[in-house]
Design goal:
Blueprint: H1 3-15, H2 19-26, E1 49-54, E2 57-64, E3 68-69, H3 77-85, E4 88-91, H4 98-112, H5 126-135, H6 143-146, H7 151-165, E5 168-169, H8 174-182, E6 188-191, H9 195-203, H10 207-220, H11 224-236, H12 240-254, H13 256-279, E7 282-289, H14 299-305, E8 310-312
Parallel strand pairs: 2-7, 4-6, 4-7
Antiparallel strand pairs: 1-2, 1-8, 3-5
Length: 313
């Protein structure tokens, strides 16, 4: 399986960023076929949590999934104690304010729609167009409705719709649950990126890569539930090595330039911001896409490379 489709399909929508986009797409108007939900009530969740401290500050670092099933209880006592102790909750980007939602209404047409006279179907070969006509209705999508979209956005819309059929819900996603947890408290919010930056990471992928990824998604949409299930179970049970392989492994090996742009460079951008947080005082809870934390070029190891002692809790 090539990594391109996983990159554009699951990583942004679930575990590696673009939290704003995942929530926006999940709320998009698309008729949903009868969901075939997966029951996660049997999972004994203990997702990974790290802590880095100095004389006057504690920083917790937690990997998120932007869309999750309602049946998965991932909010352990230790994790929620860390959230409750924080004066500031740091997220990838603003996913909840009215201002952010209004901005998305502008950014999606700007970055996600084709130029006048260009359609999605015009970028596809005949075989892929036929496959689109066959597959799209299974997630409640009409091929003609996707025609105005650039391949990266059409791919995400199909994938998020399929994920929702599994019983996944953006309101059950990690960020939205954390936001609800601190709602009405004195907790402040901080953000590492803007919505425009997050969308730009995807929109900037070369068009030929986008088209290839879209075609692969059509071929693999039926198998998506198993792949997502593997990722979620690895995350929920704290199996960091397996999660890294599921989320980053193929992309890191076969598409290093994309991995560098969408994962590694963003991780590096966050390190000085985390260092600035540590220069302050108090307790901060950082929650970013789970795919950004593991591996030699993940946030945890990058902080250790800078001399910080990052301890798994």
């Amino acid at each position: 399986m090539l990594p391109v489709s996983r990159l554009i399909r699951m990583r942004p929508a679930l575990a590696a960023g673009t939290a704003v986009l995942a929530g926006f797409l999940a709320g998009a108007a698309m008729a949903q076929a009868q969901p075939a939900a997966i029951d996660y009530s049997d999972v004994q969740a203990d997702p990974a949590l790290w802590r880095v401290s100095d004389a006057d500050s504690d920083v917790y670092i937690f990997g998120t999934f932007h869309i999750l099933p309602d049946t998965l209880d991932w909010q352990t006592g230790a994790l929620m104690e860390a959230v409750d102790s924080a004066q500031t909750l740091y997220l990838e980007a603003d996913v909840h304010s009215p201002e952010a939602q209004a901005q998305m209404q502008t950014l999606i047409p700007q970055y996600g729609l084709n130029p006048q006279g260009v359609t999605l179907s015009s970028m596809l070969d005949e075989e892929t167009r036929e496959l689109l006509a066959e597959v799209a209705p299974s997630v409640g999508a009409a091929p003609a409705a996707l025609d105005p979209l650039r391949p990266w956005l059409a791919q995400l819309m199909l994938s998020v719709a399929r994920i929702q059929q599994m019983g996944f819900n953006p309101a059950a996603g990690t960020e939205m649950q954390l936001i609800a947890r601190v709602d009405g408290t004195d907790t402040e919010f901080g953000y590492f990126e803007t919505a425009a930056e997050q969308i730009g990471f995807l929109a900037g992928i070369p068009e030929e890569v986008q088209v290839r990824g879209f075609a692969e998604t059509l071929h693999e949409l039926e198998d998506l539930p198993q792949e997502v299930d593997d990722m979620v179970r690895a995350w929920a049970t704290g199996d960091v090595e397996a999660l890294d392989q599921f989320v980053n492994g193929d992309m890191r090996e076969d598409e290093p330039e994309v991995y560098e742009a969408v994962i590694v460079q963003r991780n590096r951008n966050w390190i000085p911001q985390i260092e600035a947080i540590l220069e302050g005082e108090g307790t901060v809870f950082i929650a970013v896409g789970a795919g950004h934390l593991p591996g030699d070029e993940g946030v945890i190891e990058l902080l250790r490379d800078e001399g910080y002692e990052v301890v798994r809790q």
